[in-house]
Design goal:
With 424 residues, the chain is an all-alpha fold. Helix content is 64%, strand content 0%. It folds into two domains: 276 residues, no CATH class; 133 residues, Serine Threonine Protein Phosphatase 5, Tetratricopeptide repeat. The protein is built from 19 helices and no strands.
């Protein structure tokens, strides 16, 4: 199979994100969570994972995991690196470091905003190029983990921990190759390998609940395809049941294992794609108190409120994020997205002067994300055109082009310089 249809590619992209959830698909054997929850009706009760029991057992685990979920990737990488130094032959330790390094790079590239995966537009979206040093480190860690896992499986093909670890390595490499390199065939191969490994884990050890994350994600996504595509994708091994997927994800979400948070974020993503915004919002709000420094989760609250047409509440959320970011609540995370989203919201409400002011807020930050700043300057320029402040609009368009003359915003800015922006 040399090509993958756009629809299947889109579903694969969702598999990759949801399997990873922009955070960590972790490696640990946990007891099965509560059963009997109705498929498609996920519980919203907050469940705090017990990171202290993460494998390999190490006193640094809890802090490292909390940091990665709060987007403090630099310190998380340092923590997982120390753990690996203490446990150099443990594939679990390698996988944890691999995930932290990989998601740090994906966050830098702008690939982890859940809102971008509400539809399949992320497939063609431009992103920053990957750092060659990060790429080399990711691939070295994948090779290291794979070697350790294969050694254990050669000695015992039914080693459930090694099977689970290999599935995680494959899932993470699928996420990297798909979302970073856009190498869909390689991503598909690794994603299917991860699912196969974890289904084997569940055959050998049905109580290994964390293995249900990858299997649940695959089942839900593939079970959501139209009938014709289900038949076509089944020919390459992409099959699934929507109900089984929801059931598995709910079981993981309600466990106290490492993957409970990942499962809840996956459920938020799926509920949003299904336009079940109120349920997604309730699930999300159970996560926000646990990870107060995760600006992506905070921004998602505003996006879901907008989807529910509760724009006043969304505006309040964006302004709160902005103020919290200014006071240092989000560390080095790009909270300036709140100003961009606020501008977009006010623009939709036809408050053009207010939208321009919101976009301008991005310029108040010492080192904003370059792409966010460029988008904000373009938005501000268009708003200035609408309120008949052409001189200010021109300055903004010039700034957009100066920032990156070969980008799409720059192309739009050149068009605006030729003809002022207007709405019908």
């Amino acid at each position: 199979m040399k090509r993958i249809s756009a629809v299947v590619r889109g579903q694969l992209g969702v598999v990759l994100l949801a399997t990873a959830t922009g955070l960590l698909p972790h490696v640990a054997a946990q007891a099965a969570g509560p059963r009997g929850v109705g498929a498609g009706t996920p519980s919203r009760s907050p469940v705090a994972p017990d990171f202290s029991q993460a494998r390999p057992l190490d006193s640094l685990n809890a802090t490292a995991f909390e940091r990665v979920y709060n987007l403090d990737y630099d310190h998380a990488v340092q923590g997982f690196q120390k753990i690996l130094e203490r446990h150099p032959d443990d594939p679990f330790a390698v996988n944890h470091l691999l995930a932290a390094v990989m998601y740090r790079e994906m966050y830098r590239m702008g690939l982890l905003d859940p809102g971008d995966f509400a539809d399949d537009s992320f497939l063609e979206a431009a992103h920053k190029p990957a750092d060659p040093k990060a790429v080399a480190q990711i691939k070295a860690l994948v090779e290291r983990a794979s070697t350790l896992e294969d050694q254990r499986l050669k000695a015992n093909p039914n080693d459930v921990d090694a099977l689970y670890a290999r599935g995680i390595t494959r899932a993470q490499f699928a996420t990297y190759t798909g979302l970073v390199e856009r190498a869909w065939i390689s991503a598909l191969r690794n994603a299917l390998g991860a699912r196969k490994d974890h289904e084997r884990v569940l055959e050998l050890s049905p109580g290994y609940v964390d293995a249900k994350l990858v299997v649940g994600v695959h089942n839900y996504v593939m079970g959501s395809l139209p009938t014709g595509l289900k038949i076509a994708t089944s020919l390459v091994g992409l099959t699934g049941s929507r109900e089984k997927g929801f059931q598995y994800l709910e079981e993981v979400a309600q466990s106290h294992g490492e993957n409970s948070t990942d499962a809840r974020i996956a459920l938020v993503l799926f509920l949003r794609r299904d336009q079940r915004y109120a349920e997604a919002l309730e699930m999300l709000r159970g996560l926000l108190p646990q990870y107060p420094q995760n600006v992506l989760l905070a921004l998602e609250e505003g996006s879901l409120l907008r989807s529910l047409h509760r724009d006043g509440e969304a505006e309040a959320v964006y302004r709160k994020i902005w103020q919290s970011g200014r006071s240092g609540a989000f560390g080095g995370s790009h909270y300036e997205l709140a100003a961009l989203y606020l501008g977009d919201l006010l623009r939709a409400e036809k408050d053009y002067a207010g939208a321009a002011a919101a976009y301008e807020m991005v310029n108040e930050i010492a080192k904003p994300d370059a792409e966010v700043l460029q988008k904000a300057n373009l938005g501000a320029g268009e708003m200035y055109d609408l309120v008949r402040k052409r001189d200010l609009a021109v300055k903004k368009y010039d700034a957009v082009i100066a920032a990156n003359s070969s980008s799409r915003p720059a192309d739009t800015a050149r068009k605006r310089l030729r003809e002022p922006y207007r709405v019908d």
